[in-house]
Automatic annotation (TrEMBL):
Protein name: ascorbate ferrireductase (transmembrane)
Keywords: Electron transport, Heme, Iron, Membrane, Metal-binding, Transmembrane, Transmembrane helix, Transport
Protein EC: 7.2.1.3
PANTHER family: ASCORBATE FERRIREDUCTASE (TRANSMEMBRANE), OS05G0565100 PROTEIN
Gene3D superfamilies assigned to the protein according to its UniProt record, in alphabetical order: 1.20.120.1770
Pfam families: Cytochrom_B561 (PF03188)
Molecular function terms from GO: metal ion binding; transmembrane ascorbate ferrireductase activity; transmembrane monodehydroascorbate reductase activity
Length: 277
């Protein structure tokens, strides 16, 4: 009979290759849609303000927002070798650039409608864009609070702050991508191109988010990886015998910890203790 450790290792390899495959497809689709919409903006002419609305919002959501979320994905092709701190910095930088681009794009559209005497936020595209912007603002505020969870932990538990940051960020991204898809109209694109972009946008949204719920769901019950995704103080063990952590429900204690490799002491973040067996 095959040892349990070997079966688990084989499953890990299969999952890893699948994650890598889907991540590569996702990057290709993100790149294609971003290039397509950028080229479309170029053909319209950047001398028109409305072109900048299309370009900035498209690039802001489709590229920078998507890539900022992917930095948190362990199987992401261009960040998996980076440290947790570097991933967080990249996440913040990409998120900031995307938010500025989106905000400027929306402000341009508001100015154009105001100048033309037209009503604001009447279409589904405009309403979803506004709602997404609101959730982006909430996500930024939660993200700032998440950076200082140690200082405010007496007021609110860190897990709740980070949960709100994850959820508001995901909602902002999904609604923003929905807003983009709603603007793919025949007046801008042919029917074939419209259907293609809607399909690609839907796929990239799903593939960008597919790893996040699974990776972050454990945050609310048990940290998945004490080195890469630390939230609570707990023991790090060198064998898969389980982890005992602070503030965990008793029924969560028997769960096996996902990390099953040796962790150098210098890699452990604050709040960890190494238990050598």
């Amino acid at each position: 009979m095959e040892p349990i450790d070997m079966r688990a290792e084989r499953r890990e390899k299969i999952v890893y290759h699948l994650e890598t495959c889907f991540n590569t497809i996702n990057h290709m689709l993100i790149g294609y849609v971003t290039f397509y919409l950028s080229y479309y903006s170029y053909t319209r002419g950047f001398g028109k303000l409305f072109t900048w609305h299309i370009f900035l919002c498209s690039v802001g959501y489709q590229f920078f927002m998507a890539q900022s979320l992917l930095t948190l994905y362990p199987a992401n092709s261009w960040t998996y070798r980076y440290s947790t701190a570097t991933k967080r910095h990249l996440h913040w930088a990409l998120q900031a650039i995307g938010c500025v681009a989106i905000l400027v794009g929306i402000v341009i559209e508001i100015y154009l409608k105001e100048d033309a005497g037209r009503s604001h936020f009447r279409s589904d595209h405009a309403i979803t864009g506004l709602v997404s912007l609101i959730f982006i603002a909430l996500s930024i505020l939660n993200g700032i609070a998440a950076m200082y969870t140690v200082k405010i932990k007496r007021l609110i538990k860190p897990v709740y702050v980070k949960m709100c940051h994850y959820l508001t960020g995901i909602v902002a991204f999904v609604i923003g991508m929905t807003s983009l898809a709603l603007e793919y109209s025949p007046r801008m694109l042919s029917v074939q191109h419209k259907q293609m972009l809607i399909a690609f946008t839907t796929i990239t949204t799903a593939l960008t988010l597919i790893g996040l719920p699974a990776e972050q769901a454990g945050v609310f019950v048990l940290p998945l990886d004490p080195v890469e995704r630390h939230l609570l103080a707990h023991l790090v063990v060198q064998r898969s015998v389980g982890v005992v952590g602070d503030h965990l429900l008793p029924r969560a204690l028997p769960f096996a910890h996902r990390l099953q490799r040796t962790v150098p002491v210098q890699q452990l973040e604050h709040g960890h203790q190494l238990l050598e067996l």
